[in-house]
Design goal:
- The chain is an alpha+beta fold.
- It has helices at about 1-5, 55, 65-90, 105-110, 150-160, 165, 190-200, 205-210, 220-230, 235-245; strands spanning about 10-15, 45-50, 95, 115, 125, 130-140, 180, 185.
- β4 (about 115) and β5 (about 125) form a beta hairpin.
- The chain starts with a helix and ends with a helix.
Length: about 250
């Protein structure tokens, strides 16, 4: 399954067990709008798709909508193919894709080891930062599950950085430290302000993705920078200073 996903264009791939906080409380679209969601298949595959760096540098202009839609489509194609493969093996499977989610994809992806949830409230991957789209396949096929430790270097960097918050035109991303929300210490964006910006711009905005230091291309120099950021608190401070001098 992993080989198939990567061959079809996935950037990263992981598996986990479904937990209650992965599942949306209610269905948000279509004929089942408002229907309470309780149960889901017990295992999940999560994978990411890269969003093109040059397209995202145009944020919040029209190329962002084109790139976002294209990668949602590519993610859906992979998820549906994986689900069909699992069903052919005699198990149940469901693809969770744009417009048809029962699960919160970033939380599933985090628990599958694909990244951390950063200040902007979305998945921060090790090599592409938030510049990804995510899809999930849930199934009753028993999948291998690893014990994933939190990457505290990402949280530490986000706590110091604040670039996404400062650059957000709708002021939807918080400046302050993480808070306890529903029993979890995290940042909470203002969804209404964020979506209002989308409506005004007529696009998926994407300024936070564009500005995030983790979103730089996965070149050799940036790979070295990411390794140093992950392994040194002092270098995270230095890297943030360099980011603001060179890129901002």
């Amino acid at each position: 399954l992993k080989a198939d996903a990567l061959k079809m264009g996935a950037h990263s791939f992981g598996t986990t067990k479904i937990k209650p906080y992965h599942i949306y409380s209610y269905k948000g679209r279509g004929d089942r709008y408002g229907e309470k969601l309780v149960d889901e298949l017990p295992y999940a595959i999560a994978f990411t798709i890269e969003m093109d760096y040059d397209a995202m540098q145009q944020a919040p202009k029209a190329p962002v909508v084109l790139e976002s839609s294209l990668q949602y489509l590519n993610a859906a194609n992979i998820a549906i193919n994986l689900a069909q493969t699992i069903c052919k093996w005699g198990f149940n499977a469901r693809a969770h894709i744009d417009g048809n989610y029962n699960v919160v994809c970033p939380l599933v992806a985090k628990d599958a080891g694909l990244g951390e949830i950063g200040r902007m409230g979305i998945l921060m991957t090790p090599k592409l930062g938030p510049r990804v789209r995510i899809a999930v396949v849930t199934t009753d096929l028993e999948l291998p599950v690893r014990n994933i430790k939190d990457d505290l270097s990402v949280i530490d960097f986000c706590e110091q950085c604040n670039i996404c918050s400062a650059k957000c035109p709708s002021h939807a991303i918080p400046h302050e430290e993480r808070k306890m929300i529903d029993g979890v210490e995290r940042w909470q964006i203002d969804q209404e302000k964020c979506f209002t910006m989308w409506c005004k711009a007529g696009t998926d905005c994407g300024i936070c993705m564009k500005q995030c230091p983790y979103s730089h291309p996965n070149t050799t120099s940036h790979q070295w920078m990411r390794w140093a950021i992950k392994n040194s608190h002092l270098f995270r401070i230095a890297a943030l200073w360099m980011e603001k001098k060179i890129y901002q």
